[in-house]
Amino acid sequence: MTIINQSGRISRYASKVVYSSLFFACIAQADLGPNLALDAGADGSSKASGSSYGNAIDGDMASYWQPGSSSDERIGVKNIGSSFNTVIIRELNGATTGWRLEDHDTGEVFASGSTLGSERIISGFGDQSLYKINLVIESASGAPQIAEFEVYSATDSGSASSSSSSSSTSSSSSSSESSSSESNSSDTSSDSSSSESSSSSESSSSSSSSSQPGTPGEVLSCEQANTVQGFASLGAGTTGGQGGDEVTVSTGSELAAALSNKGGAPLTIYVDGIITPDNSNVTKFDIKDMNDVSIIGVGDNALFDGIGIKIWRANNVIVRNITMRYVRIGDKDHITIDGPSSNIWIDHNTFYNSLDVDKDYYDELVSGKGEIDNITISYNILRDSWKTSLWGSSDGDDYDRRITFWGNHWENANSRLPLFRFGEGHIVNNYYDGVISTGINSRMGATLRIEGNVFEDAQNPIVSFYSSELGYWDVEDNTFNNVNWVEYPSDGVIAGPDVQSTTSYLPPYSYSRLFAADTKAHVLANAGAGIVTDCLDAPVSGGGEQSSSSSSSSQNSSSESSSESSSSGNSSSDSGEPVELGSNLALSGGADGSSKGGGTSYGNVNDGNLASYWQPSGTSGERIGVKNFSGTFNTVIIRELNGATESWRLEDHDTNEVLASGSTLGSERIITGFGDRDLYKVNLVIDSASSAPQIAEFEIYNATGDVSDGGSSSSSSSSDSSSSSSDSSDSSSSDSSSSDSSSSNSSSSSSQSSSSFPDYSGPLSNDCVELATNPNVNWRDTSLQSDQEIVECLAQTLGRAVGYGENALGGYDPNGNSTLTVITKSSSDSVEQQIFDAMSSEDHHWIVFDKNDFAPETEVAMYRLHCSNSDVLSRIGGTEAECVDYRQWCSNRGYNDHDQCLEEFFNNRLDDKDLPIRNPVISSNTTIDGRMSNAYFRFSGFAIGKDSSGQPTQTANSVILTHLDFRGAGHTEDHGLDPDMIRSTGASHDIWIHKNTFDLTGDSAFDVKVGAYDITMSFNRVVDVKRAALHGSSDSREINENITTTMHHNAFVTRDDLYFDFGNTARRVPLIRRGTSHMWNNLFMNYRKDIISVRVGADLLWEDNALVINGDFQEKDDINSALDELQGNLTRDVSGGSYRADGVYLWFGNSACDINASTQRALTDASGSVGDLSQQYTVASRDTINDFRLDAGQDLIDYVSATAGKHGELPFNSPLAGDIYYVLSLGKVPCQ
Fold first, then answer.
1. Domain that includes residue 598, residue range
2. d(Cα 212, Cα 229) in Å, to the nearest integer?
3. According to the UniProt entry, which residue ranges have a biased composition of type Gly residues (predicted)?
4. Tens digit of pLDDT for each residue in 863-874?
5. Active site positions, annotated
6. Is the N or the C terminus of the chain less surrounded, counting Cβ atoms within 10 Å?
């Protein structure tokens, strides 16, 4: 860091203070040369049993040195035999928390830092000729595992200006002369900052002069303005669309088209106009699954009015010189960044909402979540906002993100300036003007460097509030004017009034900043859109090329992304001719497997991070698969950390064809020779291992060059092990999938084109958003007046089903013949009659409830349609009026207790199969939509289709039932009226049962019978229902082979009050005969036994479902015995068909479904073979599953609890919904 002083102040601060870390920019393109350590010796302070000093210099990532303790331990490389200037340390377990690199003989420290990570590259200490160089472990969370201590004499690296040498750092403290009232400035000479918490992105601007902030009060020069500051300068640098294609747009539709049509070249989009929801065909602009994009405003003309940008799974993105305001659609953020994404620069923009609305009316201005890194937010105005800038969506969003906030003007804002969870942040030279509640909120162990800022008219400008773990700050030279410090909450911490550092931290890049006394004038002159319009033709990146996380350091390759190994540069085939691997396709795919050990995840194998890994629970018959990646491939690289594998094979998931096989894997197994493949999923099968293997990365490439067709694999770790040819195994003859049991009806309809659907991403006008979200705006109170306009709006805002029911359109007719039916209380017909008349027509009817009439809670009971029937009146012994108003009937007969009334009237008097009361039958092309009404259905619901003696008599297709509330009268076994709430039957199909609530129903929540197929049940809340979802009512009915259902994100809950009353009777989720069902990401609370039953050859796939039981109901003396019993009973009834569970877990928890992680048990019952049923869905459904499926765990439990049911938060189906982590950030919703 260089402190830039005003004229006349240099004499007071003559010292130039430089803090810099390793700048890999200068060595990324250098030739490292050979690893000198391979020919040297090693010694150390101690070694744990089974490890060796020599393991650190043997070139084998599977071996390591581990000391006997976690502090003051040493490993040294000696007799190097040549000068060197670069060291690379590779640590396996990430345990180190403090280290230094030093000359053994003199004790001179060349570099020091905190974490090491999987690849710590250390340079900048000049050429050294030493007998021995030591790595000293000062502190660690456990005994570290140092796999390799590599030493190089790199060429062309000596010019690096990024010396990591702490000994060359001059000392200067600026606090004594600062105008700040703060008295805690740190002596900055003691820390070298050469350590960086992430080893995969360690390069920066090599020109410190270009990063100087200029003269206070004057506008930056174009050179200064176009130089990327802070974390975004690391890694590959941030250049956006520079040097590529350019296009100018003036409407949102043109902007969306430009993004959609982006090819492989970088792209700069110049925005010259006002972008609104009305001139856009999307609800947000997705920069998704693409790299190298700039969005640049032209002059003062770029206004995003009511619509925002989402940067999602994208790298190297720039957004500059635009104004955004009043965003309520899409993710409701102006700009949101979701991972994995890196190298993002948000610069010289203006963002604002309004404080004259409820705090939840808008969401964030600029925010980020998930696995994001190397981000700079600079010279923006962020004002008039309740919730301003959130980084880390929940206390479980524990990625080590790194963000710089530089030169921003935070004005008239309530909180989150920023809110920062986990990771590292640098907040420098910002001006805070009007902080209403809290300013910077450091939470969950976040480490922030806060320096050179001005806080005026602010309450609690620096705090750690509202999380279970505190965050930390290192403060220097900040000014506080008219600041109020208020101590709340009880578990929170405020920094003032005597502001002191709680940690010591310096960011891993060189930088120059102003004194706080000069910050305000500088920010006011430079922040916001319209300031640097003359400088926007060619942004200048400060970054070099990013280092790769290679396990083979002798290769001289550099790559564009930290997630690509060194082998992604030039490799060679068996013939020795060069091969260009290209990009790692696995990074864009998903992952699943057979099992996962505690704390590991399937997704760890395709996250580009060698420090994370997948580890199965066993040592044989285990599988990890990478799926849904795009494009053909011909090369696979497996990276194993612990060298445990003894036998493996690579195979096509769908056919079991073996592409390659071998014995050991080692640190880098390169597999080729199986030709070009285009597969949905490729599996690595661990046939045997000495212990549970640790697979760090499963990389997939479409390599160009001479890729061998010979059928053997090459490996850097085991030259004597070759894979078999792709035809070497006869296992491909086995049947890996039972998906053929699905009916031809279901498979054909599920693969239909979606061209008849409304555009679910828009266009959504403001009137449409109001209509779909505001209970005070009735159905015909906007500019949308025609039935077709209103119904299309309702279809768009509801979204689209995922899975087998994905083609359900309900009452929406894309040909323009949709009818909106509004149920009112003012009609001469009863509410029930109005519903019946509309749903009995084959015409397209979208049925809603008048928002004003049904604002009060209103009971609807379809049995009332039969209250004029003499048999019914005779059975109840009452009048028609008493039949319609059963409460009056009860009162007249002395049944004054409500539950007693329900039991007597519905389960005694009406329990007669000879009565004409049956569920009314819904016809095709119908939606019943209960949004923004408080109507509920009592006792019974609807049939979709009709049957007689196991044969269809009426078939309905395209039916949607959504946002409805069904309340039973208590369960009565074999009730004569069969009071299901929703029964799909008679070969009906294309059905979506979505976001309904079912409470204490007399029979099922949603049964499927007599060959009904292509049905999705999603986000429903099923409470105290004993028989939730029967699939097929008789063993003998072969038509039920056609049944296909998808059930996802439903909450099946037995409340604590009924846990013992229900005993073991809550089940059938589902009981399935002959058909096929796919259940993923569902929540089960307080289910004890036989949740599922698989019979008569049915297929059931359970994926990533979570089961929780209130620990208060543990029924054994020993918790493990209780878990053993539950584990054995819950999914045992599967032998009658084919069943597979993948990622399904059980926990004890509390009544709110907060799980006790130590009680986790996998449910692994299995029978027969079930393939990947999602392959029967359209690409749209598969993409949605890939984007939104969560591993079973607390986040899934909390998300389902918050979204399931009529009154839950909007789920991801709707374009109006926030993403999963936005929902989680709203706060805990108890599951019952």
1. 590-701
2. 9
3. 590-601
4. 999 999 999 999
5. 416
6. C
